[in-house]
Amino acid sequence: MKILVQTIQAINRFPKPDFESGYAYPEQDYTIPNEALWAYIDIAILVLLMSFVAWAVIKKQIRWPVILTSVFSIVYFGFFRDGCVCSIGAVQNMALTLTSSSYTIPLFVLLLFILPIIFTLFFGRVFCAGVCPFGALQDLVNIKNYKLSKAVTSVLSIFPWIYLGFAVLFAVTNSRFIICRFDPFVGIFRLGGEFSLLLFGIMLLIFSIFTGRPFCRFICPYGAILSLFSRISFLRVKITEKECINCQLCHNACPVDAIRPPYENKVKESRSEGVKRILRYMVFLPLMAIVGAAVMYMLSDKFSKVNKEVQLYDTVVQNEAQPQAVQSLELQAFYSRERTIEELAVQVAVIKKEFRIYSGIIGAFFSLVIALTLINLSVKRTRKLYEIDDANCVSCGKCFKYCPQNKISEPRFS
Amino acid sequence: MINKRSKANPEERREFLKTCGQMIAGGTILALFGVSFRKITTKETAYFWQINPQKCTFCGRCQTNCVLPMSAVKCIHALKVCGYCDLCGGYYRTNVKELNTAAENLMCPTGAIQRKFIEEPYFEYAINEALCNACGKCAKGCNAFGNGSLYLQIKQELCKGCNECQIAKACPSDAIRRVPVSEAYDLKS
């Protein structure tokens, strides 16, 4: 492969030696892996796997292709490609692209972000089913389905939105990519990494033996985005083509608690009461949003401490006021470069302003999420049959074989 | 009229809301494509992580902050810059008593720098990358006393290309940034 390099002029204290023995400079080889090609292979495989899963769970109602996809995804996306860049992390690149004028996004990162969303809009969360190596890993170790109580799941499932909000906040201010920083599974795929994160990853896997996909349900910010699109997907998973007989078996089999049991709402509200309720929400929602925005706005100064420049500014100011005997590496680097404290102060002021604006927006978003969760809990709809909750269904297909209606047409031999 | 509306089937209403949602979702996806399409520049897109040798201060954080157990950063030797000195600032520690290859005299803690006699008074230095742990001691010495031919760089075949380079976030002099594919290595010459 052709060597593509950029060269930089170096200092010259000693002259280039004149060799008399006919010494020749040895060849130095800097090969570049063909990353661009791999990136497009990844995209092709992503599309293929998602189509495969969609065909299996929507057309055929079978689970074995999902298991096959999971194993392949863990081996390929996980262990072979080392789990980076992934769709979950691409959320941050996307946020940065939308807000920053200088940031450019590689095409394949954009595709990585947007293709699972498009597939979700058409077929439901087929990406989560087994194409995402994180979901696949948790799905394959899952044995038992201890159901968490509704109160616990409702509170915990707000967390992905909070995580998403902070990920976007720190990404758009160019501070950190926290989704990548606190990725619990990438260490497992790379067979090594930060100890605390490895421990967290292993604990999540142990939890997922007993209850389905704790990461997908209570942490994954990309899953939160996909759940929005999954709610309105054109095609959706049906447990059986035949009539539901309300046997409850699918409900017990669902690892992510996405099958809701029948419910009879005995307290029917009158029309005027409904109108009043809507009016109350219309007052309540903006009020919550304003409160949330104000709280986050006030906290924005604390969040801005995550940014490297803000940290540097704080240490420099501290050092100016009280010069330290042993200067940290940051201070040494700062003083060795031609950069004045005034320039830094201007930059930090810009960063802090960004933090205030985005914290405010994200605060409003947080309180909307909380308010909508509360409203959702208070709305009671009558259901006559077991129904799939499309937002939470990850299309894993575990319910198919439990449905007795799916078995009737098969010939029986005893 | 009013009666008809009040008797609207809730399921029909839900279906209508769903269609609205689908339109909004489709619109959002198209809008995302539209906005980011202008920002896709396949040629100049910063892609590979590299250290800017002119900013690097050899602080040694590359050694410990990489996500890999053995850092993807390695010492690189620009032979065409090297002075081939006997008393090499990157090879020997400062204030050594004797110029021999005893370990207490050598700068490299892992013995990754090997030297070969070429002709009086020149020695060729080579880095054994399997042993190099990117501590940057040799590069610091070479930069302080010599031509700066030893320096640290991210090796592309080792780098995992993390979405966010952990060393970049720890680097005190902001020397690590992404470079386009067409300039995949920042080398001294």
Bin the helical content of chain A.
55-70%
Judging from the principal axes of the Cα atoms, what is the shape of chain A?
globular
What shape does the CA trace of chain B take? elongated
The radius of gyration of chain B is 28 Å
The number of distinct β-strands of chain A equals 3
Q: How many structurally independent domains of chain A?
A: 2
* End-to-end gap of chain B: 84 Å
Total discrete domains of chain B: 2
Please provide a written account of the structure.
The complex is a heterodimer of chains A (414) and B (189). With 414 residues, chain A is mainly α. Chain A has 2 domains: 35-259 and 389-398, no CATH class; 271-378, no CATH class. Chain A is 60% helix and 2% strand. Chain A is built from 18 helices and 3 strands. Chain A has helices spanning 35-60, 64-80, 87-99, 107-123, 126-131, 133-141, 150-156, 159-172, 178-181, 186-189, 195-210, 214-218, 221-231, 249-253, 271-303, 308-321, 329-336, 341-378, and strands at residues 5-8, 259-260, 387-388. Chain B is built from 5 helices and 7 strands. The radius of gyration of chain B is 28 Å and the shape is elongated. In chain B, strand 3 (113-119) and strand 4 (122-127) form a beta hairpin. In chain B, the strands form 3 sheets. In chain B, strands 1-6 form a two-stranded antiparallel sheet. Chain B has a two-stranded antiparallel ribbon with strand order 2-5. Chain B has 2 domains: 2-37; 46-183, no CATH class. At the A-B interface, strand 1, helix 3, helix 4, helix 13 and helix 17 of A face helix 2, strand 1, strand 4 and strand 7 of B. Strand 1 of chain A pairs parallel with strand 7 (185-188) of chain B.
